Amino acid sequence: MCLVSYVPTETGFVFSSNRDEAPSRHATELTEEEIGGRTVYYPRDTKGGSWLFFSDRGEIICLLNGAFTIHERRAQYKMSRGLMLKESYQYENIIDFIEQFDFRGIEPFTTVILSDDYFLEYVWDGNIKHVRELDRNTDYNWSSCTLYTPDIQQERNRLFKSMLSAHSGHAADSVKEIHLNDQVIDEANAFKMKRGSLVQTISLSQIISDQKGYSYTYHDLLEGKPSLSLKYI
């Protein structure tokens, strides 16, 4: 949830998400669940929610903690952001969820939302909704403001784009290699980062769209387990 990227390809796109979190919060498997009449796939967080959902309607919803700037955390919130995103599947579509769900009492967050019908960045800053339409033909990357200062976010963005332009070959492999780079900037701010025993990159998730359909692969980096994949959903 802390480095997220979208890279268009000739036949679709590669959507990737690093999760920078306490090791105790790592997920070990991809979950398949029926929610609101849809089959939904996601790595299950220890709290029951997730940071990256994909449905059989081809909808992707990805979460990053925080909005535009770091915020002061309250002692208690209405529900976790991962469970809130799971709740979105009780609505007809994500637009209805954005318009109708009461976000008051939810901790600030950024979501990237992608389907056949829309490609959006939706940010809740704790008081106001911010919606930005994105271009499917442009590559994007995001870094969570709760872990990375504005200057570091800008540098990670610059480095990601520079490394992406220098890569050749299969897009998914190239993006994966960038997401797992632990040499840029420093250990605490690299794409695959580590800050002592408190926070580190514990997984990489990738959703790939091509002429065959969709594949969802979850890489557990903490225990080095084999990749778990759902091919051509």
Describe this structure in words.
This protein is an alpha+beta fold and about 230 residues long. It has a single domain (about 5-145, about 195-230), classed as Penicillin V Acylase, Chain A (4-Layer Sandwich), CATH 3.60.60.10. About 15% of the residues lie in helices and about 35% in strands. Strands 1, 2, 10, 11, 12, 13 and 14 form a seven-stranded antiparallel sheet that branches. The protein has a seven-stranded antiparallel sheet with strand order 3-4-5-6-7-8-9, covered by helices on one side. A hairpin with a 4-residue loop joins strand 1 and strand 2 (about 15-20). The longest helix has 17 residues, at about 150-165. The two termini are about 20 Å apart.
Any key phrases for this structure?
233 residues; alpha+beta; Penicillin V Acylase, Chain A; 17% helix; globular
